[in-house]
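Issue 218. Parser rejects a valid record. Input:
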Amino acid sequence: MTTRQVKPPILLGFGPGIGFLKALPVAISVVVLSLCSGSIYSYAQSGEKVREFQGDFVTEDGCPVVCNSIRTALDLDPFGVPIDGRIYINYKNVSDKQIDAVKFRIRFVDETGADLGTFQAADGALVAPGTDHDQKWKREPINQKVTGMKVRVLQVKCPDGSMWQSSKMTEMTPSAQAAPGAEGQQTPAPAQ
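Output the parser choked on:
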């Protein structure tokens, strides 16, 4: 009877004579080195760079919404220049009606108060009387001279169809000048 010697199988393509357990540290090293190479763009070495500041709420008589807190977090590049901004607002319905939409005007400013970018941001949440609501928005690009932010409520809409509008709405659209309620007044619900 002849004995035949059986060669061990080739494991994971490492070739004869290299076992799986011997090749595992080499495979792990290759994966780690490829992940740590310069081909992956990341600020992981320096930590995330963020500049934060509080915003100012511009009040108006009769407005059914007040802002409790306004905060902006600017994500910065490695040179300290803003890439984008995340705006966080907590507001309260101070009216006796439920509201279902609020439109804000958000203005970024420099240290002198000069306008460095203005936009409108809406929130379509149902907010009961006397309750708070949180909302956030992201905006990009951001002027590198931004040091502050001013927020004003432009419009508030109720489920019954009534609407409050800021007096600043007249500055934005000529048609708003003739519209009822354009001077910060409550517009009655349309007749059914």
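Fixed in the parser; the record now loads. The mean pLDDT is 79.
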